[in-house]
Structure formats: C-alpha cells, structure tokens
C-alpha cells in the first residue's frame, strides 16, 4: 500500500456488545479486537477521522435491538466526543445513513474498513464504498465472522466464510490488507 492520506477515514463497523452473544456461534480471528484497538489508537494519534457505525436492528430478537446492552458500543470502542457515529438499520453503512455525504463534505476519498461481520456489514459497506468511488481498504485481520450454514444446510467454518468474503471484495471493490501493512503505510 502506498501512503495513507492525511484524512483517510477509519470505519469501525458494529463493534457493539451484542456481537459477543453466544447465540451467534463460533467465530474466527480471535485477535481481531486487538488489531482494531491498534488501528484505532494509530488513527487517533495521527488525528485522522474515525467513524463508528452502529447497527440498530428493527428485529425484536436481535442482539442489536435498541434499549438493551447489546446495542451499545463495546467499552474498548466507545467513540470519543469528536468522532463521527452513524447508525444503520441494514448491513450497508451507506444506506440511508448520511455517511457518503459526510465523507464528501470533508473531502475524504480513502476509507479503511474493519469490524464485523466480515460477510455481512463489512462486505456490504465495502462494496458500496468501492462502487461509490472511494479508495477502499478492508483490514482482513481486523474483521471476523461466524460459522454459517448455506441454503443446503452445509456448515461452513467462519474461517472459510471470512476468506471468501474477503476474496469477493478483492475482485472489484477493495484492497485487502493486514493491519501491519496499513500501519506501515501511515
């Protein structure tokens, strides 16, 4: 990766308490939170923009339902007063949130995306970012997902689901890098 833009935005997707609920199942990448913390600290120290995205579910059974602890940000990822927070009701952080407008108003053209779930909100947001013309990076070791069954009932490991989601993004939408490469570009 070439150098990070001085205003490259870090998008932290859905790092809320509910993502740790046992009913979501087995996950991959147990060090993702550590990588996210390292990148967040770097962004804050370099005074680059940080954007926190919070999923607000309309499903009454969701771990992200408003008014319950699962909807709140994890303690390590609570936004600071000057950091942007966008709420979404769908996986895509750009859909009906005002995020695209906010980025354009600030002349931000480069996005670094991380968080959860790799094959859902991260992938959806990165696809939109790429389609909208943003120079998009997804930090593979700062994302994770869960085991998932396909429509035929076959169980796919979180590692396979994660790898395929990142591969899909790498085709046309985003560069896939690890946190070491992103920090080195800073």
Automatic annotation (TrEMBL):
Pfam families: Isochorismatase (PF00857). InterPro entries: Isochorismatase-like_dom, Isochorismatase-like_hydrls, Isochorismatase-like_sf. Keywords: Hydrolase. Residues 8-156 form the Isochorismatase-like domain. The keyword Hydrolase applies. Its EC number is 3.-.-.-. GO terms for molecular function: hydrolase activity. The keyword Hydrolase applies. CDD domains: nicotinamidase_related. This is Cysteine hydrolase family protein.
């Amino acid at each position: 990766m070439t150098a990070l833009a001085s205003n490259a935005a870090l998008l932290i997707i859905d790092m809320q308490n509910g993502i740790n609920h046992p009913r979501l199942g087995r996950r991959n990448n147990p060090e993702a939170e550590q990588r996210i913390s390292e990148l967040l600290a770097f962004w804050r120290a370099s005074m680059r923009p940080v954007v926190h995205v919070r999923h607000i579910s309309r499903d009454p059974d969701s771990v992200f339902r408003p008014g319950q602890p699962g909807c709140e940000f994890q303690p390590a990822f609570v936004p600071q007063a000057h950091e942007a927070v966008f709420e979404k009701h769908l996986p895509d952080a750009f859909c009906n949130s005002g995020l695209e407008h906010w980025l354009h108003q600030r002349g931000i053209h480069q996005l670094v995306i991380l968080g959860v779930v790799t094959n859902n909100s991260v992938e959806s947001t990165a696809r939109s970012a790429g389609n909208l013309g943003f120079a998009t990076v997804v930090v593979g070791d700062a994302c994770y997902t869960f085991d998932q069954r396909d429509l035929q009932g076959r169980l796919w490991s979180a590692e396979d689901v994660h790898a395929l989601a990142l591969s899909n993004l790498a085709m046309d939408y985003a560069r896939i890098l690890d946190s070491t490469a992103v920090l080195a570009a800073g």
